[in-house]
Amino acid sequence: MNVKITRALISVSDKAGLLPFAQKLAQMGVEILSTGGTAKALQDAGIKVKEVSDYTGFPEILDGRVKTLHPKIHGGILGRRTQKSHTDAMTAHGIGPIDLIVVNLYPFEATVALGADFDSCIENIDIGGPAMIRSAAKNHESVVVITDLADYETVMRELDENKGMVTLQTRKALAAKAYARTAAYDAAISMWFAKQNGEALPERFAISGARRQLLSYGENPHQSAAFYVTDNTIPCLANATQLQGKPLSYNNINDADGAWELVSEFSEPTVAIIKHANPCGVASAATMKEAYLKALECDPVSAFGGIIALNRTLDSATAEEIAKLFVEVIIAPDADKGAQEIIAKKKNLRLLTTGGMPDVKKESLVFKTVLGGFLVQSRDNLILQNDLKTVTKRAPTEQEIKDMLFALTVAKHVKSNAIVLAKDNRTIGLGAGQMSRVDSVRIACQKASEAKLETRGTALASEAFFPFDDNVHLAAKAGITGIIQPGGSIRDEEVIKAADEHGIAMVFTGTRHFRH
To answer: 353, 377, 404 — which closes off a domain?
Structure first.
């Protein structure tokens, strides 16, 4: 059945779009109840409003903490119009039905995001709002609930089309949305409280996300997928502006996020080219064009159809070079007008700008689903320093240390087993995702050879320890002169001995960087 709106309660912190909606209700003869600032805003606009305290006969108390928590309010929302015992009780207690609830909650999430103190955050936890929303959503058989500004238009259209009534289908959809909103709100509060108590991983873990985009499909066409945003405050792929191109696919998003994380690690102008979640070329240089060309040289074959991330503004010179290659996505902090005009000629190429670079040192969490649950861990945000332990007779030169650190920074973002060869702020070869580490070494050297890049004098980074000395012998054959790895194998002495035999400088970091 359709619900005729005769009485509405409006209490909103965000008043955008409110006045046209409230005016519509007033024109239809709907009685409007309201509180505090919302009531004043409506009254100032000339809209007739009855204060909730006047309606209930009970004043707001406890600095406004208790306003709508009253039987006359919740009885009016929860009472079932089709059940005689309910209507009789409402009549006996002088409770009139409330057919429409319009509530958006105290801005708790925004208050936390601004870095407010503990007491301010507590005072921005809404109690009456969620109670009314849940009550209205539960009784959607008789009540319409609006929690999203975007739904004003939908309800106004239905009121016009149905002579002041709202359909059951719409009420159900709004009820589902209402419960999703209170669930997200409670999740934000619970996780904030856990953080205040020093619990990064609480006993009950609550997470919510706002759907940004329904995707055509997932990793494969037979899989459904959507893209959700959990934090809208950081410059990242999830909050990027798409300036042009086809809608992003599931795989585009996954790969572009990996590319963005990688370039965010570097302070110098850096370009990363990603294919199937692995880097196929990374380089830093004085200009973005130079960095791109050097990154492309590492593996031009794999770069075809890849993702390109830049940690500086995309300029015209770089855009001209990128436009020569078929790529799926470009992501950068910004793109100048000339670059945008060049990329616009490739109408399907997706160009994304984030408005800035994220703080990679900031703590955040990574999620992975398993059947029946999910894993949570802190992001691998370790910033590599020069406090390395030299374990070979020959210590690395200053240049070798620089090459080692560059290689290991990239290796953090390569699927394990991961091997990265680097020299002069650029990757020379990469071996990724192999079941044995020696195969990753072999592939990295092979990739360098195919790209006609010199492996002699390069540094090799391994994200985990060498289990055998065969890796070192293979590296020596390729002319590699420096190796950086965590150490910690039961065969470390054999590995170090092999490095000494070949005059290779080896350093241990003591830290593993698995990525699966």
So the answer is: 353
Radius of gyration of the chain, Cα coordinates, nearest whole angstrom: 30
Q: Where are the alpha helices (DSSP H) in 378-454?
A: 398-411, 437-450
Is 42 in the same domain as 161?
yes
Task: Kindly state the tokens that stand for 219.
Answer: 């990793």
d(CA 127, CA 298): 57
Whether 446 maps to a domain, the answer reads yes
Q: Which domain holds residue 439?
A: 389-508
Angle at 308 between CA 305 and CA 309, to 5 degrees: 160
Give 478's Cβ-side CA count (13 Å radius). Answer: 28
* Pair 336, 483 in one domain: no
- A 10 A CB-CB count for 401 gives 19
Q: What is the pLDDT of residue 36?
A: 84
425 and 338 assigned to the same domain:
no
In this prediction the pTM is 0.87
Determine the straight-line distance between the first and last CA of the chain, rounded to whole angstroms: 52
Pairing of strands 31-34, 50-51: parallel
Residue range 46-90, pLDDT digits in tens: 999 998 888 888 887 887 778 788 888 899 999 988 888 998 888
* Residues 218/327, Cβ–Cβ less than 8 Å: no
**Residues classed as catalytic:** 138, 276
Query: Is the separation of the CB atoms in 410 and 461 below 8 Å?
Result: yes
- Residues (pLDDT < 70) of the chain are 1, 385-386
